Structure formats: structure tokens, C-alpha cells
Amino acid sequence: MDTLTLPAPAKLNLFLHITGRRADGYHTLQTLFALLDHGDTLHFQRTSGPDIGISPVLPGVPNEQNLIYKAAVALQQATSCRLGADIRIEKRLPMGGGIGGGSSDAATTLLALNVLWNLNLSLDQLAELGLTLGADVPVFVRGCSAYAEGVGEIIFPAKIAENWYLVLKPDCEISTREIFSDPALTRDTPPIKLAASQTQYCKNDCEGIVRKQYGEVDKALEWLENFGKGRLTGTGSCVFLECESRDLAEKILKQSPFQGFIAKAVNESPAHRELREALKN
User: What are the positions of the active site (predicted)?
Assistant: First the structure.
């Protein structure tokens, strides 16, 4: 196999609790990741040399800083692989939205190049490598909606309701570092039994800080109150609303003063599903 095309799905944090702060400054958390059937698409072409080419160059992100590039180089270095790749991105997910665009792109890169380069690394090995790129990368590597603890690296597969969601992207980008360094951030939410998290309301501990500092996010959440309980995902600027049907989500989106998209939660990553089908052929 010389070429491969795979999706890089978005995610929502259905809740995000900050339970503490470690001595190294990282925050401990509990969260529930819901993978979505909407995302970027990456096209991979194996090359005989070690160079990693990426096109197009994303605005404000030199290729050397792109997580796709970093994932490919990390995989080369971990395996002493001398092959390379040309990678073309169809970017649909907004940057800085808190829906995992960069992390998902990195995970899909690891999955694809592991096959194209005939490396035969296990998902455990790829997830461990992915963690060096970002705390959200392992959940995309493992390819299922999941609970997470620790700094996001302790993952438990979860069976979630495959609901429809309206996701809106206010016109701003949020600095995760800035949110986590805010002295007003709640850092002592009591840990919950994760099995209970789908049967009781769970909040995003970062939402209050984000709404205070980013007026556009506050406006979007206020607007969603006309239709139900909107929530912030992760520490990005995207907000979401659970909807009874796709039709309802489309009706709300047509009225929205904000850009957005509609997606369905899925228990298996589209990247894993399409990779399995590609390997059959």
C-alpha cells in the first residue's frame, strides 16, 4: 500500500472536571470524550526518502509546528524509519475550537504511517508516542469514545449515546495555557465515579473563566439558551447543544449568527473504521 486516505474526527468533551494540580504544573482531570462523525481528511502518499511534505500550509502554522509533521517525525525517530510521506490536508475543523483538530490529525497520521511504513506498532505503542505530542492524542489513536483521567492519558472506553449535536464556533481563539493559569479556575472538583457521568449533569470547570474572558463565547452560549442547555467543549471556543434530531439541529443552525456544523456522536472512530476497510482491500 503506497497511498491511504483517512478521516481525522472531531471530539466533544461532554464534561470536564479539574480535580487537582500536580507538582509539575499539569492539571489532573476527569472528562468524557465523544467522538464525532465530522472532521478533517488526510491524504497520505508514501515516499522513498525521509522528507515529510505537508500541503497546504495552514495559516499561522509553519509545517515544523504542525502536529501532523511532529507526529510523522516522532514516528520516524521512534522506529528509525527512513521512509517519508507527502500529506495533503482537507481542513474542516476550526483551529483553537477545543474539538481536537490538531490532536486528531496527529493521531490519524500515526495510524496511517504505521501502515504505509509497515511498522506494525500496536495501538498501545502509538498511544504512548501520541501522548508526547499532546494529552488528547491517545484517545484518537485508540479510536473510541472514552472516559479519561490523569492529565487525559488514562483512558477507559465508553459506550455513549449516539446523539446529534450542533457545534458553533465563535469568532475567537482561546489560549489553553491562559485558562489553566487563571487563579480563579476551580481545581478541586471532587472526583466522580465515571459510570455515573452520563446519568447526571456534569459541567465544564473552564466554562466560567472562558465566558468571562471571551465575550463571543459568552454570547454564543447565551444564544443557545433559546433552544436548550449549551456547553463549552474542552478549553477551546466551540460550544455545543445536544439535539433530538439532525433536522432540529439544522433548523437551529440556519438561525444562528455563528458559524458551525452538525455532527453525530459515534462510539468507534471513523478513522479506525475506514482503516479497517482499507486493509481488507
Answer: 11, 136
Residue ranges covered by each domain of the chain: 3-159+272-280, 164-266
Is residue 1 annotated as involved in ligand binding?
Answer: no
State yes or no: 270 annotated in a binding site.
no
pTM of the model: 0.94
Q: Which CATH superfamily is domain 164-266 in?
A: GHMP kinase, C-terminal domain (3.30.70.890)
- Do the annotations mark residue 134 as ligand-binding? no
Q: Are 239 and 233 in contact (CB under 8 A)?
A: yes
Place of cell 488514562: 154
Q: Which residues of the chain have pLDDT under 50?
A: none
Q: Which residues are designated catalytic?
A: 11, 136
Q: What is the DSSP string of 87-123?
A: EEEE--SPTTSSS-HHHHHHHHHHHHHHHHTT----H
Written out in words, the top-level CATH class of the domain with range 3-159+272-280 is alpha beta
CB 31 within 8 A of CB 15: yes
Other CB atoms within a 10 A radius of the CB of residue 201 amount to: 8
